From TrEMBL:
It comes from the Bacteria. SUPFAM superfamilies: FAD/NAD(P)-binding domain. PANTHER family: THIOREDOXIN REDUCTASE 1-RELATED-RELATED. Residues 3-288 form the FAD/NAD(P)-binding domain. One of its GO terms (molecular function) is oxidoreductase activity. The keyword Flavoprotein applies. This is FAD/NAD(P)-binding domain-containing protein. Signal peptide: none annotated.
Length: 306
């Protein structure tokens, strides 16, 4: 149970890294801890050659394309702890299907565990997540183009997202669920783009049986028909492993990495939504491949000293 690289996370970043490392003849274990963040979405968009593919199908193809690489293992594991032991990491956890304890060692560790979204505690947001409640115009804007849209939030964040969405639709409304804390300049910019502002309290989002948004219901009894609500949801790391190892985090809670995807902990790397930057499946896959190349070259230098 000793590996060159332990990859924790079986999404786009983790599987992409495993593919590259497998092609480098590296002995790799992918600890796949469960469903991806985009599980609720009907499709992955903007992924060249796979535009619109269902998230589960994209991962199935990833697993299928790893099979020829005998040095790569993918297991359903929840890694609960990592500790440094000399020149290697020791990771412990359990099988997600059988609860059997597992302990492995690896020369390098790549965290591709991603983030979890914290949605507003209002009826409808969780139920419509991925279809009527969306987070990324680049991922979903085309599917709701020219439709009546809403942007949920307050302050500078909601202003920027609403202005961005005006590229996809001429009918965008900001809903703040109470005081919007918008500056006079923000209100002027929104008004210039014909973006209205609703600061009435929201009661709930009302959807169809297929989880498409129908309208937003407010405390005063009014309803606002909308096709989708976009928001920048708060997030937290899906795994606390980086924090437990003492890895540096950014002010927004992402795991800090340098230009080589290396965290502040020697031998520990991170890629995908775990790290700062734009969150998109294609970019996560690219980051995973980049991290794999860096890791392989690091191992090679160790094996071929001067």
């Amino acid at each position: 149970m000793h590996y060159d690289v332990l990859i924790i996370g079986g999404g786009s970043a983790g599987l992409s890294a495993a593919l590259t490392l497998g092609r480098c003849l590296r002995h790799v274990l992918v600890a796949d801890g469960g469903p991806p963040r985009n599980e609720a979405s009907p499709g992955v968009h903007g992924f060249l050659t796979r535009d619109g593919i269902r998230p589960a199908e994209l991962l199935r193809l990833g697993h299928e394309q790893l099979r020829p690489y005998d040095s790569v293992e993918v297991q359903c594991l929840e890694i609960t702890s990592i500790a440094r032991e000399g020149r290697v990491f020791r990771a412990a956890g359990f099988g997600t299907s059988d609860d059997v304890p597992v302990s492995v060692t690896a020369r390098r560790v790549l965290l591709a565990t991603g983030v979890a979204d914290i949605l507003p505690p209002l009826p409808g947001f969780r139920e419509l997540w991925g279809r009527g409640v969306l987070h990324c115009p680049y991922c979903h804007g085309w599917e709701v183009r020219n439709q009546p849209l809403a942007v949920y939030g307050q302050g500078r964040t909601v202003t920027g997202l609403a202005l961005l969405l005006s590229r996809w639709s001429p009918d965008v409304v900001v809903v703040t669920d109470g005081p919007g804390h918008l500056t006079l300049n923000a209100r002027r910019r929104l008004r210039r783009q014909k973006i209205r502002i609703h600061e009435e309290r929201i009661v709930r989002l009302v959807g169809s049986p297929t989880n498409d948004l129908q309208h937003i219901e407010f405390a005063d009894g009014s309803q606002l028909p909308r096709r989708a609500v976009f928001l920048h949801a708060h997030q937290h790391q899906r795994s606390a492993l980086a924090e437990k190892l003492g890895a540096r985090h950014t002010s927004k809670g992402a795991v800090w990495v340098d230009s080589a995807m290396h965290t502040s902990v020697p031998g520990l790397y991170a890629a995908g939504d775990t790290t700062p930057g734009t969150q998109q499946a294609l970019l996560a896959a690219a980051a995973g491949s980049k991290a794999a190349i860096v890791i392989n070259e690091s191992l090679t230098r160790e094996e071929c000293p001067r």
